[in-house]
Write a structure and sequence with these properties.
about 350 residues; alpha+beta; Phosphorylase Kinase, domain 1; Transferase(Phosphotransferase), domain 1; 3 domains; five-stranded antiparallel beta sheet; two-stranded antiparallel ribbon; globular; binds adenosine-5'-triphosphate; binds magnesium ion
């Protein structure tokens, strides 16, 4: 074998900057993510015998502090992944230990994450939203519903056909689980629902907030690290002005309801949010009537005025439009009202990447 000189390393032993898992039967291909603070690195690896691709998540022992329930972060993640059986959630494969740490193996989903710079048309964003809501419905239909707690662009992979995959169940918990000190407000600032800041019980609507924030990032072409730019002095996600004017007021109202500050003003769960989203036209076909509805924003007075005007139009033979539009009008009003509430929570420092 010839002399190999690479990266300043001399000798005939292959040099790799990645950990050596050959004893366990895997070879690392690339690093997928690193959270130095938390002592976690995620690798894409290949099984030496079968060529099967897996994701190896490394948890360094130095950082493995058990939470109050006595479980370490990786034990919780394994427990949850093992219970799940969905084609768009990675399956748990295996786990092993070395002197350096604990390693969890899961199925590799071959699709780029939404954390990468990718531009989607509004119609495509709706398709992605539907695909994610389907996964959330599955999680919420478990006997003890599961709340993911870290929905954000980096933890969602989307393929060419716009199928979404949900990864990183490191913070996931059952709805009924007690909040422990270490799990309190552990999500990602900007994507974390207000109730989590307070340590209030999380519900199915909590993941809807994070999904809404993610979709708003896609529509406004905001990188997740810049989501603060959309948060106003009252800690609300103030994105309306940043949306393309072609986005219909109905879709805007749906998004506003997803990220309402109070969880009781959001859709109750993913199934309700999906049913509301499906019939919505994402792009405004600007009949003039829609612009009128959009003008009906936060004041009941203008809402009544809007209805009266629509009533006049109905006399001109557009009765069918009234029923549909009044319902949407109400939705816009509700969403606006829920956005106007004054939350009194304090933002916590970023503790997750
Ligand atoms: N099963 C998978 N298939 C494909 N890619 C994955 C998979 N799991 C994770 N990834 C990619 O690796 C990245 C890091 O993994 P993961 O989010 O699980 O680790 P993490 O340590 O919790 O990271 P962070 O703290 O940054 O969220 C993800 O953002 C995603 O892009
Ligand atoms: Mg992650």
């Amino acid at each position: 074998m010839g002399l190999d000189v690479r990266n300043g390393y001399q000798g005939d032993i292959p040099f790799s900057k990645y950990p050596d898992f050959s004893q366990q039967g895997y070879q690392v291909i690339q690093e997928l993510g690193r959270n130095s603070e938390a002592g976690r690195t995620t690798y894409l690896a290949q099984a030496l015998k079968t060529d099967q691709r897996v994701v190896i998540k490394e948890f360094r022992f130095a950082n493995a502090i058990p939470d109050l329930s006595g479980l370490k972060a990786y034990e919780r993640e394994i427990q949850i992944l093992q219970q799940l059986n969905h084609s768009r959630i990675p399956r748990y494969v295996d786990a092993f230990e070395t002197s350096a740490g604990f390693y969890m193996l899961q199925e590799y989903k071959n699709a780029p994450s939404l954390g990468l710079k990718r531009n989607f048309e509004p119609e495509e964003v709706k398709q992605i939203a539907i695909s994610i809501l389907e996964i959330l419905i599955y999680l919420q239909q478990q006997v003890d519903p599961i709340i993911h707690r870290d929905i954000k662009p980096e933890n969602l992979l989307v393929d060419e056909q716009l199928n979404a995959y949900l990864v990183d169940f490191g913070l996931a918990q059952h709805k009924g689980a007690k909040m422990t000190l270490s799990s309190l407000a552990a999500g990602t600032p900007g994507f974390m629902p207000p109730e989590e800041h307070f340590g209030y019980p999380l519900t199915e609507a909590s993941d809807l907030y994070s999904l809404g924030a993610t979709l708003i990032c896609l529509l406004t072409r905001t990188r997740s690290g810049d989501i603060n730019k959309l948060i106003d002095a009252k800690y609300r996600l103030n994105f309306q002005q940043k949306l393309s004017p072609q986005i219909s007021p109905y879709f805007k109202a749906w998004l506003m309801k997803m990220v309402a500050q109070k969880r009781q003003h959001r859709y109750a769960n993913a199934a309700v949010a999906l049913a509301a989203l499906k019939p919505i036209a994402v792009i405004s076909n600007d009949t003039g009537l829609e612009t009128l509805f959009a003008a009906v924003k936060s004041r009941r007075k203008s809402f009544v005025f809007g209805l009266a005007t629509i009533g006049t139009l109905a006399i001109a033979g557009k009765i069918f439009m009234i029923a549909q539009s009044a319902a949407i009008n109400k939705q816009v009003l509700e969403a606006s009202e829920s956005q106007n509430l004054k939350p009194n929570f304090h933002r916590l420092d970023k503790n997750r990447h």
